[in-house]
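Run: sequence + fe (ii) ion -> complex structure.
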Amino acid sequence: MTGWTLGIETTAHTLSFGLVDSEGTPYPAASDTLRPDKGGIHPREAADHHKDVSGSLFTQVLEMHGLTPSDITTVAYSQGPGLGPCLRVGAAIARGLATRLKAPLIGVNHCVAHIEIGRQQCGCDDPVLLYVSGGNTQVIARLNGRYRVLGETLDIGIGNMLDKFARTQGIPFPGGPVIEKKALEYLRMNPEPSMEGLRLPYAVRGMDLAFSGLMTAAQRLIENGASLEAVCWSLQEHAFAACVEVAERAMAHTGKSELLLGGGVACNERMRTMCHEMSNDREGSSHAPPKMYCIDNGTMIARLGWLEISKRQTPLDESAIDQYLRTDQTPIVWS
Ligand code: ATP
Ligand code: FE2
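>> structure
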């Protein structure tokens, strides 16, 4: 294959254009994330944001890598899952560019793209993926030609839980990184911390997870006088341990020895450490891609488009988005 594959990511608050070259080698994306001053994200507002910045961001990604539009020979986009209005903007941009550039179009599965950029970056072969983002929390493994979801959140994504808790404490979006800093401050003041008075509910439900109870209980701890730093530390310990426990059970059930982290919460150093410790205990290995490829990014979409394009294309009349696209709906036709 010659030429470059463009990847367009718009599942939620981030619009991102990324590229891979003809060998499938990833190049950093140009991204812009809507950060509301207060309150949560409204899907329509995010979609408007994506429309507003798409032109300048597309120019930016080409300039970053010294390319012109005619260098793009394939256009890939996130077809789902995600927020409908946001996905629709991405699909519209993709259709427009593919038509103008006379390039094949391919709609790809956002969750599978997180796995594939991780495999490419970390050199792991057949991992269990712990996908922890704002909207998604899933434990995924390859079985019989598809990525299967072995466990997932039954209510909100772990990142949304962290962001919502942060918002109740006056911390703006994204709250996850601030919670990480506050937890570290607590550890600096308390090198040997105790859970006494900071216990939170257990988030594991069989192979699934549930986080909203954790968030409410964390708020209650603050109301009862615990410091914000202490609660941030406890919240991370409880929420991450629950994810790691389900991931460990998935490794045990499937007999796989590699763990791969993906999604924005995979930027968290405490999460990374817990995964390393668990994998080392099992004599396995734990991997996490660079942070720019953990968070939502267009490059992972380009990478999956590049992997799939020799096997299929998305005709215009089948290019509608699928908000509820499941991880196991995409057959793995690449190696
Ligand atoms: P998806 O569409 O896959 O659900 P998303 O829109 O949530 O993705 P991501 O970029 O994957 O986007 O993840 C953003 C989330 O990651 C936010 O909830 C943010 O708080 C969280 N996050 C980012 N960095 C950290 C960190 N260091 N610690 C904890 N959470 C983090
Ligand atoms: Fe994502």
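>> summary
The CA atoms of residues 111 and 326 lie 8 Å apart. Residues 4-115+293-329 form a domain with the Nucleotidyltransferase; domain 5 fold (CATH 3.30.420.40).
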